[in-house]
Amino acid sequence: MLVYEIEKALIKLAKKRKTITYSQLALCINKKSAEKLPEKGSALGSVLSKYLHILCENYVRNGKPMIGSLVVSKKTGMPSEGFFRFAEKLYKIDLKNDDQKKIFWQNELKRVFKEFGD
Predict the structure, then answer these.
(1) With the CA atoms of 109, 36, 23 and 86 taken in that order, what torsion angle do they form, in degrees rounded to the nearest 10?
(2) Distance CA 23, CA 98 (A)
(3) Backbone angles phi, psi at 48, to 5 degrees
(4) Which of 27, 69, 74, 103 is an S-S bond match for 21, by CB 3.0 to 4.6 Å?
(5) How many whole angstroms separate alpha carbon 92 and alpha carbon 75?
(6) In the structure, what pLDDT confidence band is assigned to residue 51 with cuts at 50, 70 and 90?
(7) CA atoms within 13 A on the CB side of 81
C-alpha cells in the first residue's frame, strides 16, 4: 500500500533529519512498490498530496506533527501551497503571509525531527 511505503520513507528521512523533494519521493517509492506514483507534473502533485494529507491528518489526530513537512518543492525548498492550506485546516490556524508559513513549517519540521530522533 502506497501510504505505508510513503510513511516508511518519511520516517527514515526524519531520523536522518533530512527533507526530500516531491519528485525524489516518488522515485524512491516507485523503486520499492509495485504500485507506482507519477514522477513529475501536476499528476505527481495531486496523487502524492492525497497520500500526504492522509498521513498528516492521522499524525495530527494523534498529537504528532505533520510528517508531510519533510516533503518540499525543488524550486522553493519548502512544502507546496497545498501543505499550508491543509495545515490551516488541521490546526485551525490562519497563515497570512509567506513569513508565517515559513515559521510554521520550520517549527513543524523541528517537531518531526524531535518525534523521530534517536
Answers:
(1) -40
(2) 23
(3) -65, -40
(4) 74
(5) 27
(6) very high
(7) 3
Could you give the CA distance from residue 45 to residue 63 in angstroms, rounded to a whole number?
Answer: 26
Q: How far apart are CA 12 and CA 118, in angstroms?
A: 11
For the chain, where are the alpha helices, taking DSSP H only?
Answer: 2-15, 22-32, 41-61, 81-91, 98-116
Domain spans, the chain: 2-116
Distances (CA, A) of 45 to 17, 25, 96: 23, 11, 23
> Using an 8 Å Cβ cutoff, are 37 and 44 in contact?
yes
Task: Examine the pLDDT at 118 and tell me if it is beyond 70.
Answer: no
Q: Which of 84, 91, 86, 92 is nearest to 64 (CA)?
A: 91
Quickly tell me which residue has 520499492 as its cell: 32
